[in-house]
Design goal:
Layout (H helix, E strand, L loop, with lengths): L5 H4 L12 H12 L6 E5 L6 H13 L13 H8 L5 E5 L6 H10 L10 E6 L6 H12 L5 E7 L7 H4 L3 E4 L5 H14 L3 E2 L1 H10 L4 H15 L2 E2 L1 H8 L4 H12 L3 H13 L4 H19 L10 H11 L4 H18 L5 H26 L11 H15 L1 H11 L1 H8 L2 E5 L5 E5 L4 H8 L1 H15 L5 E5 L10 H8 L5
Parallel strand pairs: 1-4, 1-5, 2-3, 3-4, 6-7, 9-10
Antiparallel strand pairs: 8-9
Helix pairs in contact: 3-4, 5-6, 8-9, 9-10, 9-11, 12-13, 12-14, 13-17, 14-15, 14-16, 16-17, 17-18, 19-20, 19-22, 20-21, 20-22
């Protein structure tokens, strides 16, 4: 007999074997017992959460030889045929590959024929959102007035793409991502029954990588067995998937916290040399800093981490400011996106990590230069640190901001070119400083049209809105405008 994958072998065969969807199972069982079966259901939810399995079990429950029952026997001819996919009265359609109007017209023609083997004819349409608009239109009439012996079960991972005219004619049931503990418990049961020796830490990782999809977790376990045999260690996962392990993630996040460029790049190199992909490291780092974010705001309990792992995350979170965590997450998310299109993904990640560290260094320098000395033992407020980081971001993008202003208003550009962003004041305004004797530029900046051009350019560059105001007499500003620059802006000549 040919090999049967673990996922197919352990596919639920009755309602009680469905993992993590108690609200849906209870609803369907009650409907069967009360003989209140809807003519059409819309099963919504992420992949691998039991939508198709539940649809098949419902078909069994309705067509079991024992009669419609919430506990199908699984042994009668109808139950076995539905289990094996041979039942003539249970028709499964993959809308991803059969999405046209011709397939739906064929369905409408065959709906008229009564069931041959059971009480109901059940149509299961998987990924129904993939149907074309014409196909949906053709399906609509049948959904409105189906024969009494026909049940439609429409399954989708993207319910927002199902037309409201279709969805409103179905009873909608939403499948949730399966909880980490439930996935792990099922994996443990499978491992014991299959005679596997798997490390607890490896089991945790397989459950975590499934991201709430039982199918994905079981498939990964199957893949690991093919790779490592019946004894699976945590390092086997790292080798097979190229994932960043826990120790590496904590070391990398600590090096970012310490603002150590060389250590960060060396850790990244060691991970890649060990067989981990740059894109996977970026993804794992994002998940890691998400954990840190949750721990920082006191929501670590919702992460479903092991007690030991959660404690380490909370200890690390205490060392970061909230703004630093958010900045790292934004930077890594952008890097992950850029890596998909760049031919040198590793380089993108390296540069992004260095930029994150550089931004923190700039924020610290700004804090040292502008902030008055604090009494011994007193720490700066989170608000102050966040403001400093915002001004550092503006300074970083200043050339880009000036270029944008130049395109919007040459007069505003001249005024801004002579100034420099100094701080964000108590009113939340960005203060532009001018050297003594440059009040003309400050006044020009205050003109409504110029100010609007400046504020719009800043928003486009840094993604945040700031009102601006100018001040004159700050000795830190050095004049930079030259006659040649003015000639270039206005395309003029010197007379």
């Amino acid at each position: 007999m040919s090999y049967i994958s673990l996922y197919r072998k352990w596919r639920p065969q009755n309602f009680d074997e469905i993992i993590g969807q108690k609200h849906i199972i209870q609803t369907l069982k009650n409907a069967i017992k009360a003989n209140r079966i809807s003519h059409a259901y819309l099963f919504c939810g992420p992949r691998g959460t039991g939508k198709t399995s539940c649809a098949r079990i419902l078909a069994k429950a309705l067509n079991c030889a024992d009669g419609s029952t919430a506990s199908p026997c699984g042994n009668c001819g109808n139950c076995k045929k539905i289990r094996d996919g041979h039942a003539v009265d249970v028709i499964e359609i993959d809308a991803a590959s059969n999405r046209g109007i011709d397939e739906i017209r064929d369905l409408r023609e065959k709906v008229r024929y009564t069931p041959i083997e059971g009480k109901y004819k059940v149509y299961i349409i998987d990924e129904v959102h993939m149907l074309t608009q014409e196909a949906f239109n053709a399906l609509l009439k049948t959904l409105e007035e189906p024969p009494a012996y026909v049940i439609f079960i429409l399954a989708t991972t993207e319910p927002q793409k199902v037309p409201i005219t279709i969805a409103s004619r179905c009873q909608r049931l939403d499948f949730a991502r399966i909880k980490f503990a439930e996935v792990k418990e099922q994996l443990k049961k499978i491992a014991e029954n299959e005679g596997l020796d798997i490390e607890e830490k490896a089991l945790d990782e397989v459950a975590r990588l499934g991201e709430g999809s039982m199918r994905d977790s079981i498939s990964l376990l199957d893949q690991l067995i093919s790779f490592a045999g019946n004894k699976v260690a945590f390092n086997d996962i790292m080798t097979l998937l190229g994932s960043a392990d826990e120790e590496m993630l904590f070391s990398l996040s600590s090096s970012i916290l310490e603002k150590d460029d060389a250590k960060t790049l060396n850790l990244l190199r060691e991970g890649i040399d060990a067989g981990r992909s740059a894109s996977q490291i970026a993804k794992d780092l994002i998940n890691h800093f998400r954990n840190i974010l949750f721990a920082k705001v006191g929501a670590a309990d919702s992460l479903e981490l092991t007690i030991e792992h959660q404690k380490k995350v909370e200890e690390l979170a205490a060392k970061f400011t909230l703004n630093e965590i958010k900045t790292v997450l934004r930077g890594l998310s952008q890097a992950e996106m850029d890596m998909k299109w760049h031919p040198h993904a590793r380089l993108v990640l390296e540069v992004s990590l260095l930029e994150l560290i550089d931004n923190q260094k700039m924020a610290e320098q700004q804090e040292t230069r502008l902030r008055p000395a604090l009494p011994a033992g007193r720490q700066p407020s989170l608000r102050v640190v966040e403001i400093d980081n915002r001004i550092a971001k503006i300074k970083k993008h200043w050339p880009e901001i000036l270029e944008s202003i130049k395109q919007k208003s040459p007069f505003a550009f001249i005024s801004m070119h002579e100034g420099e962003p100094l701080e964000i004041n108590d009113k939340g305004k960005l203060v532009i400083g001018y050297k003594k004797g440059y009040a003309f530029h400050k006044d020009r900046l205050e003109e409504k049209k110029n100010k609007e051009a400046v504020e719009q350019a800043i928003k486009e560059a840094v993604g945040e809105s700031f009102l601006v105001e100018g001040v004159v007499g700050d000795e830190r500003i050095t004049p930079r405008m030259s006659v040649e620059a003015v000639k270039e802006i206005f395309e003029g000549e010197l007379i």
